[in-house]
Amino acid sequence: MAKTCLITGASRGIGKALALAMAKKGYLLALTGRDQAQLHSVRDEIIAQLPSAHVETRMLDITDYDQVGAVVDGFETSLGGLDVVVANAGISVSKPIGVGGFKEHQAVIETNVLGLMATAEAVLPYFKERNAGQFVAVSSVAAFRGLPKHSSYCASKVAVKSYMESLSAELLGSGILTTTLFPGYIDTDINRHMVNRPFLISAEEGAKQMLVLIEKGVKTSTVPKKPWSVVSQMMKAVPESVIAKMS
Questions:
Q1: Distance (Å, whole) CA 103 – CA 78
Q2: Which family would the database say this protein is a member of (predicted)?
Q3: Which partner for 152 in 17, 27, 105, 115 could form a disulfide, CB atoms 3.0-4.6 Å apart?
Q4: CATH assignment of the domain containing 226
Q5: Distances from the Cα of 73 to the Cα of 9, 39, 88, 188, 203, angstroms
Q6: How far apart are CA 149 and CA 246, in angstroms?
Q7: Residue 67 — φ and ψ, nearest 5°?
Q8: How wide is the angle at C-alpha 28 spanned by C-alphas 27 and 34, nearest 5°?
Q9: Can you give the residue range of the structural domain that contains 10?
Q10: Closest CA to 228 of 208, 201, 207
Q11: What is the per-residue pLDDT across 7-47, written as a single tens digit (0 to 9) for each?
Q12: 65 a catalytic residue
């Protein structure tokens, strides 16, 4: 029987690429995003390539926390249960601290952290009832070192990392899997404004590698695994004077 997968933030970037990669592997898809027109475009693009694909879409602002539960409930019913949930929705802002950007930084935390937590709260009761399922969180290599002008984004990805460590410990010994992925620079709108994007890969290649890791059931991994598994550890030792020059 085909597996089902919910992907949040699926209207563009990594979410869109992952949706297409999973459709090619036969997953039944539940896709959410804030832009209904773009969601429908993603669905149509998948169906055009794979006419037999099953793709359901629901518009969702992940910061409408009550609505997250309603959307998850709807997909649980329409798909007969969710096997994999990828909490991918996220935003970023490039702005120094103390220049009047609090509302933008607040939106990053609300989306990247609270939105993911709301998704987990909605999904876990179903997983626990079946003692099965996989919850996948998309963090970032930004979780390994705070970068100038990206304070809220880095903080949000550290929070995701710690939250998933707690969830993993709570579920130890159960039939429920947790996977935390730490993408490096994957070519999407969220980082195209940056001058330096070392070890850049396409969204399609990033999604392909992410799907391999998800299907292996890994607990944590950088994406790509190399060189970021090494670089992420080295980042902790980089002098602050060097970090200060990065933006």
A1: 36
A2: Belongs to the short-chain dehydrogenases/reductases (SDR) family.
A3: 105
A4: 3.40.50.720
A5: 17, 19, 18, 30, 29
A6: 9
A7: -70, -25
A8: 110
A9: 4-243
A10: 201
A11: 999 999 999 999 999 999 999 999 999 999 999 999 999 99
A12: no
Angle between helices 102-109 and 151-170 (to 10 degrees): 20
H or E element, residue 198:
none
Helix/strand/coil (H/E/C) assignment for every residue in 100-113: CCHHHHHHHHHHHH
**Number of domain units in the chain:** 1
| Distance spanning both ends of the chain, measured CA to CA | 47
Beta strand 55-59 with 176-183: parallel, antiparallel or unpaired? unpaired
Rounded to 5 degrees, what angle do the CA atoms 232, 235, 237 make?
130
pLDDT band at 130 (very low <50, low <70, confident <90, very high): very high
This prediction's pTM: 0.94
Q: How many CA atoms lie within 13 Å of 199's alpha carbon, on the beta-carbon side?
A: 16
* Rounded Cα distance, 9 and 34, in Å: 8
- Residue type at 157 in one-letter notation: K
Is residue 206 within 8 Å of 186, Cβ to Cβ? yes
Sheet holding 84-87, edge to edge: 55-59, 28-33, 4-7, 84-87, 133-138, 176-183, 220-223
Q: Average pLDDT in the 201-214 region? A: 95
Contact 104, 112 (CB under 8 A): no
